[in-house]
Amino acid sequence: MCRHFPPCPAADSSDRDAARLTAHHPEQGWSQLCNGVVLFEDTGELLPDGRAIAPRRPTATLVAPQLREG
Question: Given 8, 14, 52, 55, which residue has the most CB atoms within 10 angstroms?
């Protein structure tokens, strides 16, 4: 699928998101990569074989407020 050199990562590789953009539609919330992966703004993905990858949203970390003396 990819004609770049070096070629973009394959759709089934762990670094698939590093492929070049071929279509970008921020108004619709998705982009397509050179390897056929469709990325969604919520970080979910649709692979060319039809498999869906669940969103990988960052998890919030709760931090206890600092106790102040005096």
Answer: 8
Q: Tell me the C-alpha to C-alpha distance, in Å, between residue 21 and each of 31, 39, 60, 62.
A: 7, 10, 29, 35
Stated pTM of the model: 0.75
| Residue pLDDT, tens place only, 10-30 | 999 999 999 999 999 999 999
Q: Which two tokens stand for residue 51?
A: 């498999």
β-pairing, 38-40 with 30-33?
antiparallel
How many C-beta atoms lie closer than 10 Å to residue 46's C-beta?
A: 17
Cβ neighbors of 3 (< 8 A, separation 6 or more) are none
